[in-house]
């Protein structure tokens, strides 16, 4: 999947200051997959099923909003088999930020959209949320991002290690509880450009136990 306007891979991990992390509390966060059509109208994609079909040349944007007690990770395995780290970009600075709590983030960027490749395929987004940082996953990601594009074989191997870790985490937490999923009106400090009105009216609120995982597959 290509991105128009800004061709960078964004990876950000959300966590809250220590005072916001309560081990006995539930995870709460908001998310939305937004699609823009050829008339620039935006709407929410229904990602409740195992697969969501999108039309060719669709423009897709992801909105994320941490609410309480969550470290959030987002990856993309695109139709060409490439793994991209979308959220977060740096672990060593994100936890020092003061305004992550309730901020509303736009991925891939404030003025960018994901655009499917011309050939048919599936874009798989891996969303993981944990009450505590997933330190081994973070370590694997940092090593992956350090590898040069010229070392294609090692890059592919490192991507496989990340996906294996994601699979393991899902298996270990296979009994995680999804307490509630419901639409909520968007509010908060939007970190992006909404001058063209590209925000939907609502996002999905997720409440879960100590861990949450979801794979969103967009078929084109």
Describe the structure.
By secondary structure, the protein is α+β, with helices and mostly antiparallel strands. It has one domain. Helix content is 17%, strand content 38%. It contains 3 helices and 14 strands. The chain has helices spanning 91-94, 135-146, 152-172, and strands at residues 2-4, 27-36, 42-44, 52-53, 59-68, 71-77, 83-87, 103-107, 113-115, 122-130, 178-185, 189-191, 202-208, 211-219. Strands 2, 3, 5, 8, 11, 12 and 13 form a 7-stranded mixed beta sheet that branches. The chain has a 5-stranded mixed beta sheet with strand order 4-14-10-6-7, covered by helices on one side. β2 (27-36) and β3 form a beta hairpin. α2 runs antiparallel to α3 (152-172). The longest helix has 21 residues, at 152-172. It is globular and about 40 Å long. 30% of the residues are buried. The model is unreliable at 5-23 and 189-196 (pLDDT under 50).
Q: Categorize the overall geometry.
A: globular
Q: Mind summarizing the main beta sheet?
A: 7 strands, mixed
Number of strands: 14
The unreliable regions are 5-23, 189-196
DSSP strand content: 35-45%
Rg from Cα = 17 Å
Helix content: 10-25%
Q: Note the run of SSEs as H and E.
A: EEEEEEEHEEEHHEEEE
Q: Give the number of helices.
A: 3
Class by SSE composition: alpha+beta
Cα distance, first to last residue? 10 Å
Number of domains: 1
């Amino acid at each position: 999947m290509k991105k128009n306007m800004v061709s960078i891979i964004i990876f950000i991990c959300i966590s809250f200051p220590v005072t916001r992390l309560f081990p006995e509390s539930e995870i709460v966060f908001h998310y939305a997959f937004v699609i823009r059509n050829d008339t620039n109208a935006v709407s929410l994609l229904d990602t409740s099923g195992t697969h969501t079909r999108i039309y060719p040349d669709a423009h897709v944007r992801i909105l994320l909003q941490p609410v309480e007690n969550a470290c959030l990770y987002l990856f993309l395995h695109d139709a060409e088999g490439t793994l991209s780290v979308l959220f977060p970009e740096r672990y060593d600075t994100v936890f020092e930020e003061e305004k992550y709590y309730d901020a509303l983030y736009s991925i891939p960027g404030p003025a960018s959209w994901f655009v499917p490749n011309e050939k048919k395929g599936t874009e798989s987004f891996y969303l993981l949320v944990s009450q505590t940082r997933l330190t081994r996953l973070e370590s694997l990601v940092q090593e992956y991002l350090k590898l040069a594009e010229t070392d294609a074989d090692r890059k592919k191997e490192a991507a496989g290690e990340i996906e294996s870790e994601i699979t393991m985490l899902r298996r270990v937490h296979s009994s995680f509880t999804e307490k509630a999923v419901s639409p909520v009106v968007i509010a908060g400090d939007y970190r992006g450009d909404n001058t063209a009105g590209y925000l939907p009216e609502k996002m999905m609120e997720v409440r879960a136990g100590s861990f949450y995982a979801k794979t969103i597959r967009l078929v084109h």
